[in-house]
Write a structure and sequence with these properties.
heterodimer; A: alpha+beta; Glutaredoxin; 2 domains; B: alpha/beta; Rossmann fold; Ubiquitin-like (UB roll); 5-stranded mixed sheet
Amino acid sequence: MKIDVSHAKKIIQRYRKKKGILIPLLQDIQAIYGYVPEETVGLISKELSIYPVDIYGVTTFYTQFHLMPQGKHTIKVCQGTACHVMGGKGILNCISDKLGIKDGETTEDGRFSLERVACLGCCGMAPVVVVDEDFHGNCNFQKIDYLLNQYKSKKEES
Amino acid sequence: MKARILICMGTSGISAGAEEVAKCFKKELNKYNLQSKYEIIRVGDRGLFRDVLVDIIEPNEERITYERVKVIDVPKIVKNHLKNGEYIKGLQAGKDYKQFFARQMRIVLSNCGEIDPENIEEYIEKDGYEAAKKALKMKPEEIIEEIKKSGLRGRGGAGFPTGLKWEFCRKAKSDTKYIICNADEGDPGAFMDRSILEGDPHSVVEGMIIGAYAIGANEGYIYCRAEYPLAVKRLDKAIGQAREKKFLGKNIFGSRFSFDLVIKEGAGAFVCGEETALIASIEGKRGTPNPRPPYPAQKGLWGKPSNINNVETLANIRHIIDKGADWFSSIGYNKSKGTKVFAIAGKVKNTGLVEVPMGTTIREIVYGSGGGMVNKKIPFKAVQLGGPSGGCLPESLFDTPIDYESINETGAIMGSGGMVIMDQRTCMVDIARFFLSFTVAESCGKCIPCRIGLKRMLEVLEQISEGNGKEEHLKFLKDMSQTIIDTALCGLGNTAPNPVLTTIRYFKDEYQAHIKDRSCPSHVCTNLVRFEINEDKCIKCGQCFTVCPTGAIDLKKREYPILNKEKCIKCKACIDVCPVMAIE
């Protein structure tokens, strides 16, 4: 699949001649494409004289960056201490079973990506699941069923 | 003055539907033509998690708080309370709410849940930016002296005296210096920084202005976790408003001092909470720590002297300048002054943020504000303090006063103030394994003790929890822990063995049960547990059947449920739902 790099070019222009820009630059690129495409890495390297190894070094170090396209909805399951004590692992396994993917993977139809995250800072409503930007607290198996169905039907509407 | 309707809109409030409640209030007020009399104010989290909290404050009248407000309750509140003046008893915040706040001393959190964080005027009304004005008329050395005298220590974990830190940076000679706010709150189980940033962002900005003036910095960075989108949004707004008011920028308050702030968003790496790793991350590199010395105060960001403080520390500054060092040092215990915010979570009745004076005991927090255990039938087992760098303490240490030194003596650390309460259904071996799997995943890989040593420890713990533990494993864990503590490069590695060491120290019998008897007393380690339905206790309610996600429980009319062990994934959903604890 070919991607349109013109957006990336515009973003790179904005960051020219500034210091410490690699992380915000990659964040902006990911905001547009949903991941950091290989083509843009070459472009950044050429335009800003940064070695590709340094760019890949940063993208693989931070969990936020993806090098592969992500699903339409990203499901983050909190695995922090409080969520662990309140049964977060079961919630992760349950979603994993239902979607047939492990954490870090995307469903074949491109609907959902599943991620585990360390702590979302909402320990008071553990266990927590975040779909895209929406937080869902006090999760249990029934709520997961309901949530997944809700997002599935959302997709069909659009 | 208009009467105020406060609606709590932190991340948790919004997830419980606070935005819809606010919209409904607006609609209903218009319906009864009350919009000129009442003002809806969106405030940050107050600390207690009670879905949507709504406060009605009318001039010269008692403040009424409603908890767990849903959209369908709003018309009732507007009609009965606001229009006809009758309180709705069933919705009013009850005993738990009062108990939660009764023993607190809110200094840092005083504005959280009381003012609109997106409106600078409200902050100014609460004496906001007065301390900064006052500080800019003082000499930088006087400010540092005041902070030193107050006894304020870093709230991020290690507890280094803030005044001394500032002094080191002040004394470093350089044309450029930086002040950095560490808002990379990565400790699982801690969320006070998020609440402060979401509920009272200006207090952090003000603290940074004072700090920058004291050390002589003209540029500041706030390094905030990417997982906190709302906090970033509110900070951004706060900085914009402060610039408009000329509290930030050139010649602040008409003085010769200029200062401005930039927000840097993290990209998801726990180790970036460590000072030197945080600096590397701001510079756009991989967030790996560097050996100290040189300390950031000599050579930090871009090689210039830099001062890094935690969010809670900075939020304390304005109160110290405002009310004086003597006032601050009169609160607290021993060498730990002031208050500390704790995030209580886990199997406790009231979860949320509690701010108490240093020296309060763990028992007072758990049974006082926390309100005791959620399920009275399952007793307390341990409290986990300080996240992955801390440790688990048993009930016998419950009367330990909370100050940096006393907590360190127990083998745990104060950390950023996460406090997770665990009951008898939590397995200590599993918790140790959980924390190690976290630190192994988050280890940056730069130094060998942390990268390889922790991995080996995790493998051993996995063997123990799978029932393949050996007697010599315990000695191995202890020896390896000591090696890592002695040789790891940064704070992450140095403290990572703490959860293992404290669980071995206080819960050795649990390890023994796993190794010798091949059993898990808390029924957590799934390899060592078999599920059975105790027909003597079962009341045939069928709840286990409904909740089972894999259909492993078979239920026929008027018979006891049957568990199909091949289908069972040991998720424990049935155990949690059983009202008579018939599943063992």
